Amino acid sequence: MKTIVKYVLLDLLRNKTILVYAFILAILAVSVLSMSGNSSKGLLSLLNITLLFVPIISILFATIYFFNSVEFTELLLAQPIKRKTMILAEYAGVAFALSIAYLVGVGLPILLLNYSLASLTLLLSGLFLTLIFTALAMLIFVLFKDKTKGIGAAIITALFFTLLFDGLLLSFIYSFSDYPIDEPLLGFISLNPVDLARIFVLLQLDVAVMMGYSGALFKEFMGSAIGSIYAVACMAFWILIPVAISVRKFKKKDL
User: Fold this and answer.
1) H-type helices in the chain, by residue range?
2) How many CA atoms does the CB half-sphere of 247 hold within 13 Å?
3) Domains in the chain, number
4) Residue 249: CA count within 13 A, CB half-sphere
5) Burial status of residue 146 (CB atoms within 10 A of its CB: 0-12, 13-18, 19 or more)
6) Does a structural domain hold residue 8?
7) Which of 65, 216, 58 is nearest to 125 (CA)?
C-alpha cells in the first residue's frame, strides 16, 4: 500500500494542475491577508475563498484522476493486491497531494501573515473539505462507469453543496417558520460539509453578524466548544462514510 501511495503522490506532485492550484491559492491568500488591515476580515475573506474553490477543485480533479487512471488500476488488480488496499491507497495519494497543495497555498501565507487559533481552524477546515470531496470523488468513480457522467455528477455535487443547499435550507426555514424547527435544523445542517466547515471557523472567530441562522443555532444550543467538536465529528463522518461505501462497492465493480 505504501508503494502505491508513494507512486500516486509523486505522480500528482509533478502534475502542473496541482502546482497551479497551490500557486493560485497562495496569490489569493497573500492578497487577501495583505490588503485587509483587520485580521478577522482577512480570515473571513479567505474562508469564503476556501469554501468556494476547495470543494470544486478537489472533487473535479480527483474525479478526473480516478477515471484517467483506470488502466493503472487494472494493472494493479492483475497483481496479488487486494481491491480494498488498492482503492484506499489511490485515495490516500490523491488526498495527500491536494492537501499538500492547500497547505502550501494557504497554510504558508497564514503562518507568515496571520498566525492565530482561528487561522489554524481555517486550515483544518480546508483540509477536511479536501478529504471529504476527494472521498466523494472516489465514490462517484465507483458508482459510474462512464467518465462523462462521472464528471457531470462531480460538478452537480460540488454546486449542490456550495450553492444550492443553502437555498434549500432557507426554503425549509421559511416554509416551517411557524413551528419549532431549531433542533431538527441542526441535523439538516449536518448534511452539508461546507456549512459545517464555515460554522467551525466562525465559532472560533465569534463573528456574530457573519454566523447566520445556522451558526447562531450552533452557538445557542451547543456553545463554541461543543459546537466545534460536533462540527469536526460530522466532517469526519463525511470522510468515513463515502470511503466505506466506495470500498464496499469497488470490491464488486466490473472495470
Assistant:
1) 2-13, 16-35, 39-68, 70-77, 83-102, 108-113, 117-143, 147-159, 165-175, 182-189, 193-205, 208-250
2) 14
3) 1
4) 14
5) exposed
6) yes
7) 58
Question: Exposed, middle or buried by CB within 10 Å (0-12, 13-18, 19+), for 196?
Answer: buried
Q: Is 209 among the domain residues?
A: no
In a domain, 173, yes or no: no
Query: Coil, strand or helix: which one is 216?
Result: helix
Cell for 185?
A: 435544523
pTM exceeds 0.85, yes or no: yes
Q: What digits encode the pLDDT tens for the residues 194-238?
A: 988 888 887 777 554 455 555 566 666 555 677 778 888 999 999
Summarised one tens digit per residue, pLDDT across range 170-203 is 777 777 766 666 677 777 888 889 988 888 887 7
pLDDT tens, 142-163? Answer: 999 889 999 999 999 999 998 8
Range of the domain at 133: 2-162+239-250
Beta-carbon contacts of residue 94 (< 8 Å; ≥ 6 apart) = 8, 12, 61, 62, 65, 66, 134, 137, 138
